[in-house]
Amino acid sequence: MGIAMLRVNKMQAKWRVKIARSLVTPPEKKSERMKCGYIVKRYSMFILPFITTLREGLEAVVFVGGVGIGSSAKSFPLPVVCGLFAGAFVGGFMYYGGSAISLQVFLCISTAILYLISAGLFSRGVWFFENYVFNLQTGGDAAENGSGPGTYNIHKTVWHVNCCNPLIDEGWDVFNSLLGWQNTATYGSILAYNLYWLALIVVLGLMLFEEKKGHLPFCKSLTLRKLNPMYHVKNKKKNELSDAEAARLFQEARNNLQERVSLEGNDASADSGNVELDILREGTSAKKAESSIEFDTIP
Known about the structure:
2 domains; two-stranded antiparallel sheet; two-stranded antiparallel ribbon
């Protein structure tokens, strides 16, 4: 998800190709225009943010309900109101500041925060697994009995502090949730945290190399997307377009839109046609900066 956010410009180019293809080759029968595949392909720019917003809203309801099952009704208003204000602030900032702030910078910052949280979650998972094994050996939940000797496995501990326990000390659970902080660092949790970042660095390095050279190191005919088994199962290679093919596709789509607007001749269709023409123009200019682009058919 984070890598996809960093490559939002590439995703925009793919969306433009999908929209252009749906305009150039509409279904012959009107009944086929109501099929799910055509609708998703035609209105992908609307469906994607709609589904994302709907999913986040459902997650908020599920999390608030799950956390508040064992709490009183007084504990609901404050987090809900704070969440609404925070969401409204971020949404307003993105809407009104979008023209002054680079979208790429915003996505880079958001992705960095996302990866910090995910690295902490991965490290926490390993830590809790090791702590569970230690609890089975001691016959109790040692971590909740304090932070002193006997509450951790000395044989698998790199360092330990007798305070700042996120399980019993107030405030430190926030750092535990966001960054994976533990007052006891085990071999497994440290290795998991570092291996996570190492794997991410390797993947981003390979993507950067492929972005510049067009292939993976020492493999001129191999790219990252070709390592995905579904690339060969779905035979996505046949849907890749060259620069000339993409330019021809955009030109044909623009001609079809202009003909449709001139035939219908009303303001609503003209406005819609102008919007789609702008999308296609942006797609043509963006296509010049890429060597090739893929058109994925949506089932």
